[in-house]
Each structure stands twice: as structure tokens, then as C-alpha cells.
Amino acid sequence: MTTEPIAIFDSGVGGLTVAREVHRALPGEEMVYLGDTARVPYGPKSPRTVRRFAGECVEFLLHFRPKLVIIACNTASSVAMDYLAERVDVPLVGVIEPGAAAAVAATANRRVGVIGTKATVRSGSYELAIKKKADDVETYSNACPLFVPMVEEGRAGGPVVEVVAREYLEPLIGKGIDTLILGCTHYPVLKPVIQEVCGPDVNLVDSAEVVAAKVAEVLAAEGALADVPGTEPRFFVTDVVDDFVEVGRYIWPDMPGTVERVELGVV
Amino acid sequence: MTTEPIAIFDSGVGGLTVAREVHRALPGEEMVYLGDTARVPYGPKSPRTVRRFAGECVEFLLHFRPKLVIIACNTASSVAMDYLAERVDVPLVGVIEPGAAAAVAATANRRVGVIGTKATVRSGSYELAIKKKADDVETYSNACPLFVPMVEEGRAGGPVVEVVAREYLEPLIGKGIDTLILGCTHYPVLKPVIQEVCGPDVNLVDSAEVVAAKVAEVLAAEGALADVPGTEPRFFVTDVVDDFVEVGRYIWPDMPGTVERVELGVV
């Protein structure tokens, strides 16, 4: 039994989809979350910049002496895992490996689609992870740059989201995929629209759910599961608290805990 | 005659609309531009964070000993002008004042619309500037959060942009505006769609054009105009060069000069 927290890092508010699932799966775990809302989004930015920002954020989280760090951001998981692994001496869980594993398990026709930010798709991280697990699986990807700003604007559906979703997804549907990885923390919010566009026969892999399962597995294997009654998560953000709470409500309506502002990267 | 440059600061690539107009109006001026592409966008962020980022950027530009600094970013112009004015001892030209003046001059029915980022609209900066100039003018504003990511994705028109534009603009059209301020550097790229949705009778005020005219006026008044033959602008960005050039081409197809990467705010 330990009271060291699980740390979660995300580029902003999207990682709340992961935090929510972790909190549901492991309600007795202490949880500390950092969203880099001052510098969000990471998705359109270069690997070098994402590594630098992610490094600063994880350094902050290490002050809480976490027993495990989740890189909830798909972009950071795609381009900064090796960089971070060299700097962190506790287990590091990204979203790519668990997502790839779930997709390989789910696909019957061995054709998997991946949607994500520009940086995630460019990195080819899901393709690589899938090929390592099952080299008979074909992967098809498409970047969906408007999905994140749409979710942050509070759009989870409606005609605009539908038209854009159709535009982004049709090339993948055309390849005959039977499984689609929602490769960005914001996308679970758009699940109903995405499912409608793809049709009921396509399995959607939600990173948030698979990561929560992975974390439970890693902690159980290390005998490090905790069960502290009445524990509340602590959220930190690099920009103002109000906006995080406002957008956060679209993602996690009954979000518990406290939100505080911190400043990183100040000269 | 002087060879001190005109400095232009923007949160990213959008300020190229301003740089292009300045270069067209004053082709013999040295020009140095900084786009904070690592931390873009500023629009959804808090005044405190925007001030801090803008301060770091302008500090960098001051190394070039500019004779004038243009704050091309509407968000930074809206929330950081006073903060910057205290730290800079050369003339500082923002986009709000010139845009407000042009709108007041253009409106016949004294009803002006303003579109911009969330931060710009929240700040009420255009309303305030317009009221100061002409208190009989009514102002109506609406934030358009998807316009920037759409332009950065290379969308200048098409069905999605049209539907979104209609959604954002209809509340303003309903107020009977005859003049609309494009209160964000990215928006001139969407001018054709915006004009179509608003109809031919609404005057569009393009900050880029009015700022270029303002800069020429300020420099002429100070006897500081230069005419260096064959001068080429220098662009600096805080994230990778390639993406800036790629998106920049949508905005300024025959962009001259060189682009270099710099790192700001490193601990």
C-alpha cells in the first residue's frame, strides 16, 4: 500500500478523458495532473519543441514523487517517449502502445485506421507499434486538425462536425478498415459522430479506456496499487484555471478535485 | 535616411498578412519578423500568459534596434499594449487603433461588427477604441475560434468554411452592421467567403492594410522612412521553419527573404 500519486501529463485539457477513466478504474489512487494550457496545442508543432515542453512538464510532476507517470497526450507519446524515458526513473505509460495493442486485438480483417494530430500522424508511431505486434495488419492514417479546436469550442456534434468528420474519415473507410484508433485525447468526446460516420461495424479504440486498464495492470504487477478513501485528484495548468474548468466540463462533467495554476519555463 | 528595421511581432504565421502589406507599401524598408510558432495560438489564452509571451518576443526583436515595432497579433494588441509600451522606447503600432479608426470612417449607419479570437473579443478592445473615437457608433462582436485552425489547415473556402462563417456572422448581420472589422491577422485569407456571407454592402476592414498605412504615416512624421534597394525581410520563428513556410504560402504566396529558428523562454 502506498500513497504516492499517479501523475498524468497532457498538453492541455484533452487528457481529462484519460484522467476520468483512470479515476473510474482506480478511484482510491491519488492523482496529480498537469495540463500545459499556456502552450497547447502540441499537435501542429515539431518533435523538438514537443520534447522540450513535455520535458519541462514531466519535471514539474516529478516533484510529487509519483509512482507512475502517464503521458496522456498522443503527440507527446508519439515523439517524446524515448526522450522522457531517459529522464524519468519511474514507470512511464504512454498512449500509443496500449492503443496499438487494443487495435490489433480488435481487428478481424487486419485493416486498422488511425486518426490523430498532424504531429502524431507524421510520426508514424501507431503504424510502427502495430507492425511490431502484428506485421500482417495494414494501417491507414489521417490527421484531423480541426477536431481539437472543435472540442475545445464545445462542439461535440452538429452539422459542421459531421461534415468535417466525413471529410477526414472517408479516405479511411474507403480502405475497408474495421477498427479505428482515436489517436488524440480529445477525440473520445466526438465518439458518437465518429461512430455514426464510420458505421456500426467499425470498432473504435478509445485510448483513455485502454490506458486506464494498462495502468491498473502495471501497478498490480508492481504491487503498487493503493486505495485511499476519499482521495481527490489535483489538477495543475500553465494558463488560467477558469478556461480549463470551462472546457473540462465538456469532457468530464462531474470532475472532482482542485485546479491550480503554475508557471513553467520562466527565465 | 536610416537602415534600422521595422520589427513585426505576431503569435505565429498570421502576421504575414500584415508583413505583406507593409512590404508592399514600403518595399525599401528593412523588416524583421518574429512569429511565436512554438506557443501559437494566443487567442484562447489568458491576458497574463499573452503578456508574458509577447514581452519575451518583443525583447528578442529589440536586439535588432528597430525604429518601430508592429504588434501584428490582434490578441496581443488587445491585452498587452500597455504592458509592452512600458518596456519599449521606440514607437509601437498595434492593430486595434488603426482598425477602429478605419471602421469609424467607413460606417454610414453607425453599426460596426467585430470578429476575432476569444481573447480579443473578451477584452472589448475594439469596442473601447471605437467608443473613444465616436460614441454614436454601436459595436457588436463575435469570437470565431475555428477560423484560425481552418486557415492554418489551408482552407480558404469550401462548404465547411462557409457553414462555419455563416454561423459566426449571422448574429452580427442580424444587428444590421454595415462594416465588419476582421480582428485577427488570419482572417484576410477568408475575405472572399466572409464578403459572400455578409453580402456586398458590408465594408470589410482589413487590419493588415490599415496598419501598413499607419506605419507609413508614423515613419513619415518622424522623417524615418528608408529606401534601401533590394532589401529582403528576415523572418524568425520559435518552432520549425518548414511549417511556417508551408502555411505561410497560403497567406503570402511569393514571400521573399529568409526564415530562421530561434528559441525563447528557455530556462
Secondary-structure topology with pairs:
The structure is a homodimer of 267-residue chains.
Chain A: E1 6-10, H1 16-25, E2 31-35, H2 47-62, E3 68-71, H3 74-79, H4 81-85, E4 92-93, H5 96-106, E5 111-116, H6 118-123, H7 125-133, E6 138-143, H8 147-152, H9 159-173, E7 179-183, H10 191-198, E8 203-206, H11 207-221, E9 234-237, H12 241-251, E10 258-261
Parallel strand pairs in A: 1-2, 1-3, 2-9, 3-4, 5-6, 5-7, 7-8, 9-10
Features:
homodimer; 267 residues; alpha/beta; Rossmann fold; 2 domains; six-stranded parallel beta sheet; four-stranded parallel beta sheet; 12 helices; 10 strands
Give a nutshell description of this structure.
2 copies of one chain form a homodimer. Chain A is an alpha/beta fold. Helix content of chain A is 44%, strand content 17%.
